Structure prediction request, 370 residues.
Amino acid sequence: MQTSQAISAPTSNATQAWLSSARWDCLWIIAPAFLSSGIVLLLRNQIPETQNVPLWVWVGFVLLIDVAHVYATLFRTYFDPQSFERNRGLLLALPAIAWIGGSLLYSMDALFFWRALAYLAVFHFIRQQFGFAVLYSRKDSDQVKKYRWLDCAAIYMATIYPMLYWHTNMPRNISWFVAGDFVENVPEIVGQVGLGVYVLVAVLYVVKEIFFGIKNRFFNIPRNLLIAGTAISWWTGIITFNSDMAFTITNVVSHGVPYMALIWLYHHKDAAESTQKLFQKREWGKLLISNALIFFAFLVLLAYLEEGLWDGLVWREHLSVFAPFAVLPVINDGAVLALLIPFLALPQSTHYLLDGFIWRVKDRSGNWSA
Prediction:
């Protein structure tokens, strides 16, 4: 996902595949995984092994990062006039497909819907880490690129094995969306085989890096930090702890912060004109991303509105945060919920589906070229 808008790295780091610069990438793309893991490890005695997430954790991590980051996709799709015009059919069809498909699943069984959405989310989370690994491998030598399959295997096992562990060690005090959204009663042997493959891939990857590091006198810093951070955060949040709080912090920060940062990096340069000119031209998308604080505040506003509707109409769990939505009626009718729940989940489901189209590594010609 190389971008023509990436800021040139310093000359001393010219061979490193930073997206912007060593400092920027480490702060916004790489550090979140290490930082979130470090926080939960340092506070391990204060983190309860329960499914209850304190309100401050829910607001600070779920609302302000997890839900908010979803709306960053708007700036690469619906808020980009050229992208929308070129991909109008896809951008209009995917939400409709997600709503209709989700409603059909929910009408059969609510758990069918949540399970499908959970696995779609897992796939999306894994593929994001894979995408970053590919980005950070784009300047590798042709000799090293022959072993890119091993880089891919490393990032996949860093994420897939913790999920296998989760599936083979139920019940756990963790859920992706709702209790029971993952398949249960997976044989323990699946996790044991997964661990064996995990260790094998890790050893082969380390040997490969040492061999080419010595031979070429070069070490790919961003890719190795990315893979290490992914492995640490997924292991910490899922295996080390059996706590929804620990999982929420590591999962949300390591995924949501880099995604928002990537959207900002790719698109804020398009808003180079003054705020006044953008306002006069009514280029609202560019106006909203012209300033980092405005960009983030807008994402948080949309997240608040979405979660307010969820809480007012369905959950009723955080009305102290969503007091303006307390006047909404609680929906209990199954037929209405079959339409309402997938509709409220459209920002997430559309985000997961669209993300498979808007970061094209091989196609360098369109607006969605990475």
Observations:
- The chain has one domain: 22-48+58-271+283-359.
